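Table S2 (continued). Query chain:
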Amino acid sequence: MSLVPSAGSAAGPSAGWPALDKIDARLISHLQDDARGTYVQYAEGTGLSAAAVRVRVQRLHETGVVRTLGVVHPEILGIDCSATVGLKVDGGIEDCAGHLAGFAETTFVVVTAGRYDVLADVSCRTNRDLVGVLDRMLALPGVTSVEPFKHLDRVKSATQAPHTELRLNGSLDEIDHVLLRELEQDGRASYAHLAAATGLSQAGTRARVHALLAAGAIRVLAVVDPIALGIGELCGFGLKVGGPARQVAQTVASLPSTELVALTAGRWDVVGTLRAPSDDAAVEAYDQVRQVGGVAAVETFAHLAIRKEAYPRLSDLNLN
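Corresponding output:
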C-alpha cells in the first residue's frame, strides 16, 4: 500500500496537517524509493531547484507527514520472537496503554473496541523473554487477562519490508554501532553529523554507511503518516482458516487496504490490520477479507487511539 496522494491532484489531509500538492506527492514517492537520496535526485522531474526541493522535504519532515528512520536487521538486534497480545482491562484503559507504551519490547500499542481493550505488538529475543513480557503485562494495574498470538511468519507489513539476508563481512565494531544508533534516530542524518558522532572523516563515514546498507545491516525508510493524507481509519482483524493458512494470508496480504498480515499461533490463524479513508471504506475492506477463499471466521477490532508506533532499536534493547 503506497501511502502517497494521487500525483494528479492535491491530497486532502486531516485538519492540522499541511495541504499536499502533486509535487509533494512526487517527493514522498522519491523518499519511499530512496530515503537517503540527494535533493538533486529528488528535484528531477519536479521543475524545482534542489534548494526548493530541500525546503519541501524539510517541511514534510518538520510537520510529521514523513519520518525517515533506520531499521536495524533483526539478527543484529537479536530478535527472534514477535507476537500480538490482546489485553482485557478492568479500570483505566489509557493508563494501561501508557504503561505498555513504556515497555522497550512493545512496537505498537493501540486502544481498541471489541474483544480486547488494548492490543500490543511485541518484539523480543526469545520465547522465554516473551513469557517475561507477558508476566509484566499481567502484573499491570487493572489488567485481568493477556492473550498472545505468536507470529510464525510476517507475510506483509507496509512499513517493514522483509529484510534481506544479512551479509556482514566480519563483526560490527563500536563505530558501526554508533552509526546504526544515529540512523535509527534520523535516517537522513548528514554525513557531516555522522562524522562528528564517530570521529571519522566524512569520506570514511560515507563508506561505512554504504557498507552497512549494502550488507543489509540497516534499511532507511521514509514512513508516511496516513492521517496526514486523510487515510484515518485503522482496524484490526483475526481470521480462522479452513485450509492452508499461508495461502489465505498471502491472498489477504494482496488486498491494497491491508498493512500487516501475519501467520500466528493461538486463537487466530492469521492476524492483521487494514487502513481505510472512512468507515464505509473500512466495511468494504472487511468484506473483501471475508470473501477470500478459505476464511472461515473473521473478528474485527476497531482501533480507537494509537499510543505507540515504533521499531525495535539498539538503544532500547541495550545491545552492544
